[in-house]
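Ticket 4471: requesting a sanity check on a complex prediction with flavin-adenine dinucleotide. Repro inputs:
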Amino acid sequence: MRVPEIMKRKMCFSFEVFPPKADKPLEPLLETLERLYLFNPDFISCTYGAGGTNAGRNIEICRAIKQSKKTIPVTHYTCIGNSREKIRAEMQNYLALGIDHILALRGDFPKGWQGTRGDFNYANELVEFISINFPGFTIAAAGNPEKHFEAPSFESDIAHLRMKQDAGAEFIMTQLCYDVEQYKWWVDKIRKAGVTIPVDVGVMPVLQKEPTIRMAVSNGSSIPRDLAELIARYGDRPEDFKKAGKEYTVRLIHEFISAGIDGLHIYTLNKWQDVTDILLAAGIKKPLAEQPNGKTVQ
Ligand code: FAD
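Returned structure tokens:
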């Protein structure tokens, strides 16, 4: 079943992983994937380095997910540095491998870049190109509950989101957002603007002080007062920070679910043990029981 159809039936549940650097072994991520499959995710998405850096590893990971037959692989893909012809070849390759779900992005500019240095300037153009030339793909687009940091206003950012829907995107995957009230406000606003496709909410676990701050700041996401207090209180004590951060993440998941979301997407940071702790504490997903010999039973 395709992801938008799953989202019509129930709250979709998914993970995001990122490929290791080219000189690092693949095995730890393959082990992580095995651990994540235990939660029966509806899909697992894999990031794509803007500019094609590490594109080979992205394909390897998506192919491994596909071959596992455990869930749907969703590849991320960016316009940055990619010509029409290169995109065409890579789309054919994905489809040939059975990878038919894609998050179509513009991408963040690598340091020193002004534009995409490719044939498309914005994600809506990539969505349209894939939709017209490769109708076999189910396409997702990125959404920003707190506004994309480059956009001058919510109105313009939401108008651009609408363009991605009109070009063929069938669901939205959101940027990290720790402010559930802001998320609800944004959903109301996009619905009024005619964006009708389901929204998959991205949750970034709070595990370490510096990355939590860095990722929020670099994505233009706010740090709400309760998270700021957690950072102030436990910032110098990594173990206590992680414990409190996991509890914070569990509360965040519950708040999002209470808000009535179409999908929950956990940015795993490739940390299966922390994600497992969070999901078990949240009580929303039980993994298949794992025996000491590593085999699983239902
Ligand atoms: P766009 O939709 O093109 O928007 C970019 C900016 O331009 C916005 O301010 C928008 O309002 C404006 N805009 C859009 N269309 C137009 C138009 N036609 N005319 C004028 N202005 C326009 N990045 C990676 O490099 N690799 C990844 O794997 C990756 N995964 C991600 C996963 C998720 C769930 C999310 C939310 C983001 C991810 N990103 C990734 C980051 C993403 O690439 C950045 O947020 C990037 O800055 C914008 O991408 P976009 O697809 O939203 O761009």
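Notes from triage: Residues 47-48, 50, 76, 78, 103, 105-108, 122-124, 142, 148, 150-151, 156-157, 160, 163, 173-175, 202 surround flavin-adenine dinucleotide (CB under 6 Å). Leaving this open until the requester confirms.
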